[in-house]
Structures are given as C-alpha cells and as structure tokens.
Amino acid sequence: MDAVVAAQRALLGRELVGPVTVRISAGRITEVTVGEPPGSDATHVLEDGVLSPGLVDVQINGAVGVDFAEVDAESMAAVASALPQTGVTRFVPTLITAPVDTIVKQSHAVLDAVAALPLRPAARPLGLHLEGPFLSPLRHGVHDPNLMADPVPAHIDQLLGDERLRAALRVVTLAPERPGGLDAVRRLTEAGVLVSVGHTDATGEQTRAAAEAGAAMVTHLFNAQRGLGHREPGVPGTALVDERFTLGLIADLAHVDADVCRLVFNAAAERVALTTDAVAAAGMPPGRYQLGGSDVLLTEEGVPRSPEGTIAGSALTMDRAVRNIVSLGVDPAVVLASASTVPADALGERGLGRIEPGAVADLVWWDPELRPRQVWVDGEVAFDARGGRATRHNAVKAGEVRLPAAGR
C-alpha cells in the first residue's frame, strides 16, 4: 500500500528535524524530504507530535498474559497485535533458563506460533533470544540455578545443529566466565548470533575478554551481574567504556535507579538499547502470571516478583521506557534512537529502526506527551489510537491495558 506521511518533526539519524515528508511504497520508504510543507498528495498529515522509526524490543519474555515458554498460535498473535499500541513494531521473543533439550522444544513451539501469524498488520518477531541456560548461579536472579549449565561444545552443537533453530537464533545471553564460555562466544558469533553478556559474575577483565571473542551486548545492564566498583569495574564499568558493547537497559526506574539511568546516558548514550524484559504481566492488571513456567506476582506496585520477592522481569512497555528516560532530562531524539535505531543495529538489521530510503516502513507517530497515536508496520497502519486497533489476550478489552506507573 502506497502512502505519503507528512510530519512536523521526525527522527532522522539522531536528530529531530522538520517538516519531513516520508513516501512509502510496497512496505518500504522510498523518499524522505526535509524542509518542505506537505504536498497535496499527503495521505497522512500529522498535525503535531513526532514521527519516529518503529521501536525494537530485543528482550521480551511475553506480554498481555502470554508467556513465550508456553505459547501457541493464538497467544502469539495476541502479543503481536498488542505491541504496536506501545510503539513496538519488531520484537525478539525471549526464553529463559531451562535444560537445553527443553529450550530446543520451546524454541520450535515459538517458531511454529510465529509461522502461523496472520497477515494483518502487527508487530513482527525477529527470531529468538535465549537468556540461558549458560548463566552464573551466583547471579541467577529469578532463573533456576539448578537448571544452568556450562556452554560446552555439545550444548552449542545442539543449538547450532538444529537447522531451524540456528536460522532463527538472534541473541544468546551467557556468562563468559563459565567453562567453555569464550569458545562458545566465538562459535555463536561466527554463526551470526549476537552474544550478550548477562547473569554473570564476570570481572572487568573477563568482560573485555568476552568482547575480544565477539560478544557485543550486555543484557539488562547492572542487573544480575557483578557490580561497578572503583577498583574492580565489573561488567557495568567495563561495558560503559568499551565501545564494542551495546548496553541493554530496563528503563522502568525500578531495575535501575533514575540517577544511574542518567549516568548511563551521560556516559554512552549512543550505545544504549532500551528494552523491557517484559513478562506475561505486561499490559495486564495485578495478578499471578507465568515466566518460564514459574509463577510471578504483579501487585499494584507494578513490578513482577517471584513468590520469594525477587524481581521477575518487568511489566514495562517500550513507550513507557521512552517517557521514563525523557522525564530524566535526556534529549528525546537520543531516547527514541535508543528504542529503535540502536537495538536494530545491534541485531544487524540495517533496514529497521531508521527513517531513510530503502528502510522498512515501520513508523510511530507520537503525540506531544510521547504516547503512540498511530503506528505503521511494513507501511500499513497496525494501531490508531483514534480508531483503535488493538487486541488483548484473556478477554482484556482494547483500551484497558494497564501500564505501570511512572517510575515502575
């Protein structure tokens, strides 16, 4: 479907400029014009707000009542239909720690559900993110440490030897200090997989060694990893100064304090990838939900927790993450790039996360309060706040999605 979108301001590169006219044909951006008023052929004239690329979430365990560890075609379609309301047009379904045999089975279930997605405009999955089982029991968070394993050649063979899984595998989070860790980083990187350092007790030196081996991201910076010290920088200290790393950041202001989020952007704004680490509780009212088959409880506080009280992922949405960081005084252009361009680049998706000729026509029109008003996926409207295109799992009605309060 061809369209011409005229915006007062749009994110081009890392700057908000305008006016901007974006021409779309066959799901791609064909032309971007700056500094000219809308032409008579404009099909969408955006009277205020900002136009940005679609948001990309590289770590999402589920949403709207759905846990990707137990997903089917209907529930995957519910997530894909719901995410555009939050500005997300592409996402990487994430599976947490389980035995390797189980992870392979879960991966195939996710891929079956993805293959069955209807053709209507909705957020599109970008493969798989395996967050485990090659993690450190010392930094297990809500993951079951008894199910963790060393990334020995046999386990990596099992993942990469499954042709369907190998083709879909985009991200693997692991602890590089585990026996076989650096060799696993090399093999996965050579196979085209983005290796992310996470749930790890790695020192700064071990973190640098992981980068030398090919690791290029950190999973949820500061959380479930050796902390920053003035003599031992740990994972955060090294990653903040090593430009080889993209920094995944859960910006609910509960996982990472507001001042520390501000510090991260002051130190390395161009490498921050906002992510949600959302679980089934995201977009849902308080209640009991699942993460990797285990119970998590969402209270009015807005932060999912295990029965023992450990934070268990988040109920964050990407649009809320954008608003949270902007509320700290960070340039909105920088923040919008952190939710779109940076994660797309980390995944090697040069045709996503940008408004330029040749890019996929995934777009978000934000209102002046930075709430998504209209969202395009492949050049077609997937969500319109004024007309309502949103579905919810478990009979939650459109318009009734409950977002966590600011700061949660």
Description:
The C terminus is likely disordered. 57% of the residues are buried. The longest helix has 16 residues. Helix 9 runs antiparallel to helix 10. The chain has 11 helices and 23 strands. It folds into 2 domains: 83 residues, Urease, subunit C, domain 1 (Roll); 293 residues, Metal-dependent hydrolases (TIM Barrel, Alpha-Beta Barrel). Strands 8, 11, 12, 13, 14, 15, 16, 17 and 18 form a 9-stranded parallel sheet that branches. It is α/β, with parallel strands linked by helices and 408 residues long.
How would you concisely characterize the structure shown here?
By secondary structure, the protein is α/β, with parallel strands linked by helices. It has helices at 73-82, 100-115, 153-160, 163-168, 181-190, 204-213, 234-241, 258-268, 318-326, 332-339, 341-346; strands at 3-7, 10-12, 15-17, 20-25, 28-34, 44-46, 50-53, 55-60, 62-63, 66-67, 88-96, 124-125, 128-131, 169-174, 194-197, 217-218, 246-250, 272-275, 287-291, 294-298, 363-366, 372-377, 380-384.
